[in-house]
Fold these 2 entries.
Entry 1:
Amino acid sequence: MLLRDVEPADYDAYVALRCDPAMMAELGGPQPLEAIGPKVAKDAADAAAGTSWIKMIVLDETYPEDVAGAVTIWRDHHGGEEFSEIGWMVLTAYQGRGVGKRAVAMLLDAARADGRWGPVHAFPGVTDAASNGICRSLGFDLLGPEEIEFAGRPFAANHWVYEAGV
Ligand SMILES: CC(C)(COP(=O)(O)OP(=O)(O)OC[C@H]1O[C@@H](n2cnc3c(N)ncnc32)[C@H](O)[C@@H]1OP(=O)(O)O)[C@@H](O)C(=O)NCCC(=O)NCCS
């Protein structure tokens, strides 16, 4: 598995990840198509600048344009506090095979080695069994349920934090 920076050419992968009702069922619903161009451009710029780690999940390094999903670490604000947050998505065709868990573990390892991210928080939806499973099995601690905002919408999440090795 390869994790590589998002690029503007990942537009189609972003549409597949963010505009599909099934993919976004636990994330407040699909995003409008017109939001994707600006989003992939901003994410590619942020990734190139290193301000966020926005990684496309590639299963066969020979074909880095073939994307199975995405995993991202960024700095965010919640209730006046700033901290590192991680999020993940795996395309439906690749789900249920350990791809999400492995990609998240790889990015957490890289974050720990880098040293600048500190504790990493995650906010999967309360009914998102797979994402809560990733948190539980990778050693996140559950702080409890919390209402947050995702893509401009209110969202019932579980608040987890990963402090292993920090
Ligand atoms: C959440 C998501 C990334 C999981 O990816 P995945 O590659 O299918 O997950 P994995 O196969 O690595 O499984 C991760 C864990 O969840 C468990 N799991 C997977 N699917 C599950 C399901 N439908 N119900 C219950 N548990 C599930 C696995 O058994 C595994 O736990 P384990 O290590 O204890 O066995 C994927 O479902 C997805 O992209 N969903 C839509 C986007 C989204 O909601 N992202 C959440 C952002 S926080």
Entry 2:
Amino acid sequence: MNVPEYALTRRPRMKNIRMRIGDGGAILVSAPTRTPQRTIDEFVASRTDWIEKARGRREALPQPLEPGPEAERLRREVRAAAEPLIAYWAERMGVPVPDLSVRLMRTRWGSCNKAKLRVSLAVELGRRDPELLEYVVVHELTHLIHPNHGPGFYSTMSTYLPDWKEKRRALNRPAVPAG
Ligand SMILES: [Zn+2]
């Protein structure tokens, strides 16, 4: 049995084994006090696919930012940088210019509400390379043409930003902390 390394916490009141992915991709398992070690090992070993997916999802999260003056400063910066990009790309892609909101998002870099013609961008983008902001802008504007991530979506992305895959990879690599 191939058991990935994990950190175990015993909890007397628990009924089932639970697993989550922590900082740096660590596997954190909690289990009832009496569950045999071997059962926990089997549980973890049988869920390697889940672990890989959960690690991938976690990597894709923006670096969390707390509300406060720093977040406000970044919010203004992202708005100032995004507005001309949106105007440029909307015209180039032949889509209407959407309303923009810049907010703390935590779980993603941007979102698009086609019905309300509104694009939201994560404040956290202010900490990343401006090229990555452009990638997210083009991604969200593409949703005004293709609401879902189907083949049409990716072919439109490739038309306008041929290196979008590289940018997506760069975006989902954790940012090097400033300072
Ligand atoms: Zn999308």
